[in-house]
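Thread: quick sanity check before group meeting

JM: Hey all, I'm pulling together slides for Thursday and realized we never actually wrote out the predicted structure for the chain we discussed last week. Dropping the sequence here so it's in one place. If anyone has concerns about the input, flag it before I start.
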Amino acid sequence: MFSSVKGANQNIRDYAYVYAYFTNRKIMKNSMFQFFKATFLIYAICIVSSHVTYAQSDIEFDIVLQGGRVIDPETKLDEVRNVGIRNGRIVEISANPLVGLENIDVSDLVVAPGFIDLHVHGISNKEQEYQAHDGVTTALELEVGVPFMGAWHKSRHLNALINYGTSVSWPYKRAEVIEEFRVQLEESSIEIQEGGWSQEKFTPSLSLTSNYSALASDDIPSMLLKIRLALEKGALGIAVPVGYLPGASREEVFRVYQLAGELQVPIITHVRNGGTIAIQQAISDALITNAPLHVVHINSMALDEIELAIEMVNSAQKRGFKITTEMYPYTAGSTALESAVFDEGWQERLGISYHDLQWVKTGERLTEKSFTAFRQEGGTVILHLMKPEWIKAGIVTEGTIIASDGMPYAKLAHPRTAGTFSRVLGKYVREEQVMGLSKAIEKMTLLPAKMLEEVAPMMRLKGRIQVGADADITIFNPDKIIDKATFENGLEFSEGIQYVLVNGKLVVKNGIILENTFPGQPIYGKYKK
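JM (edit): ok, ran it. Output follows.
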C-alpha cells in the first residue's frame, strides 16, 4: 500500500490532523463525525498492523522546536515539549525527541501561538517589521477598514511579512453614495487600479469631509449594497468608527447594525463621544439587531469608567451575546488632529488641554497657536489623557483582548505601534505580576481568534499550539521581553522576541528579521467569492 513506513505514517498523520481539529471543535456527538472517527481508527490500525516490524517512525519535519515551554491557551497545555512543523502546520507536539530539516533549540524560551492584533493602522511591511519584532503574526485593520480593498489585497499578495486582513470601510462606502464626493472617489479608484494601491493616493477615512454630511434615507440602501459587495471581496466585518462621523444619523448606524445582524458579521466600532453612555448605545444596537459587536480601545473610550464599561461587555457575553472589547497598555491615545475628535468642545469632552497633545512630526507639545496651525495642516497627535491605574484595571479584567491600535510609521509615532504585546508580557506579567503568563497569552491569541472564527473560519486554526493548527508561532524569553519604544524617543524594536514563524516559515530568527521572506497570507471573511 505504501512504499515506506514514512509514507504510511504521513498518511496517518494527515487523517490525525483532521481528527484533532474536529475533536477540538467539540462535535463528538455528530453522527458524521462518529463515522469519520471509526473510519480513521480502522484505517490507522490496518496501516500500523502492516508495519509492525518497524519500531518507530522516521517522520521528517521542516522545522523542529526543541525543548521549549509550550503554552496553549485553549487546552491549557503548559509543559516542556518538542514541536514538529511541516507544510505550514503543527504536526506533532511531543515529549519525545523529534528531528527536522532545521532543529531550533528553544530551551528556556516560551513557545506561544503567534500574537493576533485586531487593530492596526500601519499596514505596510515597514510597520510589519515592528509588529513581527513584537511577536505579531496576524495584523488586521478592523477599526476603520482599508479603502479600495481589492487593490490593497493585490498589493500585499506574496509581499507580506505576516498575515493581514481588513474590514469594510463604512466611512468610504457612505461617501461613495453622496453626490458631492462620488466623482472624487471614482477618480481615486481609477488612479489606484491603474497605478497600484498606496495610502498617499486617498484621504484617510477619519479625515473625510463627508464624515460631516448626513446620508439621505433614500441613499442608505445603496450604501448597504456597497457594504455587501465589499464583504464578498473578503472583508472581515464592518468598520463603524462613528465617533469620527458626526454627520451619521442614528437611523443610518442602526441600518448598518441590522445588516451585520442579518449576515452575522461583526461591527467593529469606535463609539460616539460620551464614554460609557456611548458604549451602552452600541451594545443596545447590537442586542436589538443580533449583530456581533467589537468595541475598540475601551480604555480611551471609557477613561475612568473602564471597569464599568468592561463589566457591561462581560455581562452581555454571559447572556450569550457576541460582544467583545480590546485595549492597549499605554496611557495615551493617538489620532488625526484634523478629525472630528478635536471639534469644538474637545477639551471638556476629553478632560485635557493643548499641552496634553504631542505633535508626532516633531515630538513637541502643543499650544493654542500651534494647535490651530497644525489642525489646518493636518497630521497625527498623541493624546496624553489616561491614568496608569485605569490601564492596569482593564488589562487584568477577564475577557479583555489586547490590541495595539498601531499607527502608520513615523519615527515618533505612538510606541504602541511597536511595543504593545511585549509591554504586556514584560511590564504587567513579569514586573508588576498583576496577571499570569498563560492568561496574558490567551488575551493576545485565543481570544482574538475566537472573536473572528464565525466570520473567518480560517481563524479556527490560529491562536493555538495544537496538532493541525497553523504554524504561526512566537517564541520569546520571558525573563527579557519588554517594549523599547517610548513617547520621547520614538519607535524601537521590542526586546526578547527570539523567533517568529508565520505559516511555518521563520520571519524572525535569533531576534533578527529575515530578508526577502514574505509568508504572510490574507485572512478572508466567509462571504468572499
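AS: nice. The chain has two domains: 113-331+386-455+466-513, 333-383. Residues 274 and 349 are 8 Å apart (CA to CA).
JM: adding both to the slides.
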